[in-house]
Amino acid sequence: MRSSIPLTQIIMLTNVVVVAVAVVVLLVLPAPPAPSGAPGASGAGQAAPGPSQPPATPSPTPDLPSAELPPPVTATAEFARQVKANEAGMVPILMYHRIIGKRLASIDRTPAQLRKELEMLARDGYVPVTAREFAAGRMDIPAGKYPVVLTFDDGHPSHFALEADGTPARNTAVGIIYQVAKKHPDFRPVATFWVNQQPFGLQNAKDQAQAVQWLTSRGFEVANHTWGHPYLPGLPKKKIAEQLARVERLLKQLGVPPSETMALPFGAMPRKRSTVQSGRWQGVSYRFKAVFLAGAEPSVSPFTKNYDWRSVQRIQSNGKKGECRKWCSQYWLEWLDKHPRQRYTADGDPERISIPRGLRGSIRADRREMINAY
């Protein structure tokens, strides 16, 4: 396993500053036109009114690719060697914000840029899993493939909307994910959407429920990103609990299971980390299995001793210019391609953790009975 770089804390702080500045820009700039079939666009964590979404009942036409995983295999040590399995390796967790035709902030991506990155991931053998699946260690993808977690912050209208015929709008994040999955059958169409008080820019509760149920019924994850997207280190404990509990109450009303994961606004961790791990406000409780940062590098495997569910690393989707010279998706995906032994490679067996023999000592004590070393 690659050890953490000496400047990790500095890099994390830099990422917080970069993301914070970019989100402030999103809040003050005029909103771009919404995608076809979407409600009005808005800034990060803010929502604008839009038309009603079609019912959440799955449409038989067209036939969207399924998020179901193939049947598992039984991985012997020899099989794990053949597929070069390394389930102690690093996992890229990619962070996206708005997906819009003209970028207005550094963290924006255009539909073309998102499509290009997802196409590259598909060609290179990556298979998406949700943040919830990653945190649970249930990355049950085919043997020899690499997990990637696609995460979208703020529940922006550009992430999800339906056309009149019930299909995902073409240039939304969900629409693009399905387009890539149709072209590459091994590319599983799932992602995690961390939302604020008005998911996907929808103000009507019925529309919100239809949207989140459409997504969760097809394998996507919709979870907690705080009510108003505040800078959490500046809030007292009770206010932090309110920010998280209000989203949990909303999601329950919309028919979504309790959030098992959450992403910190701006990637900013309160001084007392436990305040965002679990809590209670006005009779509503929350308890997360993983809390996600705003960036710097790929995450270590959730099976390893140095995995910390309280502060999981993500990578901002971007090129290699400016502050992204070494810390965004293009750099890290190229790095992982050049260092395949450092990358998480699946064995296709949910009941085993397959690793090279020299990595036995890196696996957590509660997972040692699952080790399949070669």
Describe the structure.
The chain is α/β, with parallel strands linked by helices and 374 residues long. The protein has helices at residues 8-28, 77-82, 111-123, 131-136, 173-183, 205-216, 237-253, 329-338, and strands spanning 93-96, 126-129, 146-153, 192-195, 221-224, 261-263, 278-281, 284-287, 290-292, 315-316, 353-355, 371-373. It has a single domain (8-373), classed as TIM Barrel (Alpha-Beta Barrel), CATH 3.20.20. Strands 1, 2, 3, 4, 5 and 10 form a six-stranded parallel β-sheet that branches. A two-stranded parallel sheet has the order 6-9. A hairpin with a 2-residue loop joins strand 7 and strand 8. The longest helix has 21 residues, at 8-28. The protein is globular.
Write the layout of secondary structure elements.
Layout: H1 8-28, H2 77-82, E1 93-96, H3 111-123, E2 126-129, H4 131-136, E3 146-153, H5 173-183, E4 192-195, H6 205-216, E5 221-224, H7 237-253, E6 261-263, E7 278-281, E8 284-287, E9 290-292, E10 315-316, H8 329-338, E11 353-355, E12 371-373
Parallel strand pairs: 1-3, 1-10, 2-3, 3-4, 4-5, 6-9, 11-12
Antiparallel strand pairs: 7-8
Helix pairs in contact: 3-5
